[in-house]
Amino acid sequence: MLLFAIVLVGRLFFLQIVHGQAYQEMADSQYVTSVSNIYERGSIFFQDRRGQLVSAATLKSGYIISINPSIIENPEEAYEKIQKIIPLDKESFFVKAAKKEDPYEELARRVAEESAFAVRDLEIPGVSIQKEKWRFYPAGKTAAHILGFVGYSGDTLSGRYGLERYYNDILSRANENLYVNFFAEVFSNITDSILKSDNSKEGDLVLTIEYNVQLALEATLAQVMKDWSSESVGGIIINPTDGRVYAMASLPNFDPNLFQKEESLAVFGNPIAENVYEMGSIIKPLTMAAALDTGAVTARTTYNDKGYINLDGYRIANYDGEARGVVSMQEVLNQSLNTGVVFAEQKMGGEAFRSYMEAYGIGKETGIEVPNETKGLTDNLKSGREVEYATASFGQGIAMSPIATARALSTLANGGLLIEPYLVDRIDYKNGGSKKTYPDEGTRVLKKETSEEITRMLVKVVDEALLGGTVALPHYSVAAKTGTAQIADPKQGGYYDDRYLHSFFGYFPAYNPQFLIFLYNVNPKEVRYASQTLTSPFIDITKFLINYYEVPPDR
Q1: Which residues lie closer than 8 Å to 375 by C-beta, 6 or more apart?
Q2: Do the beta carbons of residue 553 and residue 272 sit within 8 Å?
Q3: Which of 134, 236, 344, 456 lies 20 to 30 A from 269 at CA?
Q4: Residue 454 phi/psi, 5° resolution?
Q5: What is the CATH number that goes with domain 208-252+275-548?
Q6: In whole angstroms, what is the distance from residue 138 CA to residue 140 CA?
Q7: Do residues 537 and 217 make contact, with C-beta atoms less than 8 angstroms apart?
Q8: CATH code at 2-201
Q9: What is the pLDDT, as a whole number, of residue 39?
Q10: What pTM was computed for the model?
């Protein structure tokens, strides 16, 4: 009995003091609330470039208007009075009012305080207002695939996609399912509620996502999708030296405030981490860097380009089938020659090539904080067939996610380290204190000298070759490469003749990079090459970042 008394006193203290505000809200309205009415959850924040927080996911408050049909004396009069304050469907109201054995029927949810109090002041017997809270995303569709949303899993609200799901244990609150009937709660599950409660992990998330950069990326992608009638588009802006993701987006997207209206669940998945693509020629710099690293070639190494080669009974040709004669490895990148990058792969050897591609992490998860990340498809590299190595060297026959691609390409920019991309800058715990989520420094893949050399080669691509050198920035060194790949036909086998994936990556300032931009464009219409669809968007984003972050010139 003594123990029970002590626990009961403790429980009453918990109810009155710790959760006094929530219970006061119930007492003020004089109604027992449902679980969702006292819903609590941690917040998610974007940042701006100065570190100021911008709300990404929070809670919004409003009221439920409900009736007890057994108490409603005059449904017609009640309807007419309430209808003047909030819109009601007349037929639905009278159907609910006729359920005399049902003590609770909802008329409206998420009603503004002014309107709810006006209904309360009518003092109609059997009409109640109850406070409720719900998840709200102030930026609407912005970063929707990153954030995900909160929805019901059975009778429990929890994160269903994105960071809401990945960090559900951090964002959830212990009292989410506490208040079905708070009087009964005093005398039930007392020890579980008091002795087993642990809210030490509860907190808010502060993201690496820079709000204005995210807006700029999404606006650019939307324009690309409109201009080329694309099936989908996506992009990533990342710091290649430490993995910090400033922006990440794909279209089409959705409004997490209105997720119930989406007809297909497919729109909720995050293509940046969940979809894999054959990336095409943006893989060539990875192959060339590996060959440089082994010493098999230098930028000045030459070969005789005949326009095609035959391997294992297959013909591998340049994009135009044309021969160039004797050309250097620099020209291989400038002109994006398939035969040249195969030459580099063969010079280092298939096994060495496979080892480097694995070290780039293309067949592994990156560890980014999103659910359902997909590994790359790299089985072709295990066949031992020369033709499989050859096609993989220019990005065909192997597939990877956009985020894995961005990570692999970051090794070219950052001195040769495989870093881990991340979306959460820190966790601010409810009980005090913060935890930074910086990943490890990374694993060395390339020599620093190799990274510098491939960067010089990619800067020349921009200065001399990309659209004839017309997009080079006179005061900034930019390293970049385009990619155009046929899309595989899963039904017939082989590749479509008229469906392409366009990709583009670049980083700057090239020799001290702060930003790496990766863009992709799925099946743009009536256009063949990525240089046509993605060069201008890349340059636009680059100029925006230079101005927004006040990046000083480097040349």
Answers
A1: 363, 364, 365
A2: no
A3: 134
A4: -65, -30
A5: 3.40.710.10
A6: 6
A7: no
A8: 3.90.1310.10
A9: 84
A10: 0.87
Half-sphere exposure of 224 (CA within 13 A, CB side): 36
The string of pLDDT tens digits covering residues 402-420 is: 999 999 999 999 999 999 9
| Contacts of residue 293, Cβ cutoff 8 Å, sequence gap at least 6 | 356, 416, 446, 447, 450
Structure tokens of 297?
């070639």
Cβ contacts of residue 503 below 8 Å, gap of 6+? 277, 279, 280, 281, 282, 405, 482, 483, 484, 485, 518, 519, 520, 521, 530, 534
Q: Report yes or no: 208 and 422 within 8 Å, Cβ to Cβ.
A: yes
Q: How confident is the model at residue 5, as a pLDDT? A: 44
327: its two tokens: 């050309």
In whole angstroms, give the CA distance from residue 112 to residue 62.
5
Closest CA to 217 of 534, 476, 459, 550: 534
Residue pointed to by tokens 């050897």: 349
d(CA 52, CA 109): 33
Question: Tens digit of pLDDT for each residue in 440-457?
Answer: 889 999 999 999 999 999
260 touches 456 (CB < 8 A): no
Token pair belonging to 50 = 């100065």
Cα–Cα distance, 412 to 407 (Å, whole number) = 10
The CA-based angle 452-457-462, given to 5 degrees, is 120
SS3 letters for 413-457?
HCCCEECCCECEEEEEECCCCEEECCCCCCEECCCHHHHHHHHHH
Backbone angles phi, psi at 479, to 5 degrees: -105, 130
Kindly report the length of the chain: 555
Q: What is the pLDDT of residue 186?
A: 39
- Residue intervals of the chain classified under CATH 3.40.710.10 are 208-252+275-548
User: What is the DSSP secondary-structure string of 526-546?
Assistant: T---HHHHHHHHHHHHHHHHH
Residue with tokens 């008329």: 107
Residues pairing with 520 in the sheet:
234, 503
Give pLDDT, residue 175.
Answer: 56
Specify the pairing of strand 515-522 against strand 495-508: antiparallel
- Residue 53, number of CB atoms within 10 A of its CB: 16
DSSP label at residue 14? I
Q: Which residues of the chain have pLDDT under 50?
A: 1-37, 176-197
Residues whose CB falls within 8 Å of the CB of residue 139, separated by 6 or more in sequence, listed in order? 46, 54, 55, 56, 211
Q: In what order do the strands lie in the sheet with 515-522?
A: 245-251, 232-238, 515-522, 495-508, 479-488
With beta carbons less than 8 A apart as the criterion, state whether 430 and 203 touch.
Answer: yes
CB atoms within 10 A of CB 372: 11
Q: Are 275 and 404 in contact (CB under 8 A)?
A: no
Beta strands 44-47 and 203-210: pairing type?
Answer: parallel
What is the predicted pLDDT for the residue at 480?
Answer: 98
- Considering the chain, tell me which residue range(s) the CATH 3.90.1310.10 domain(s) occupy: 2-201
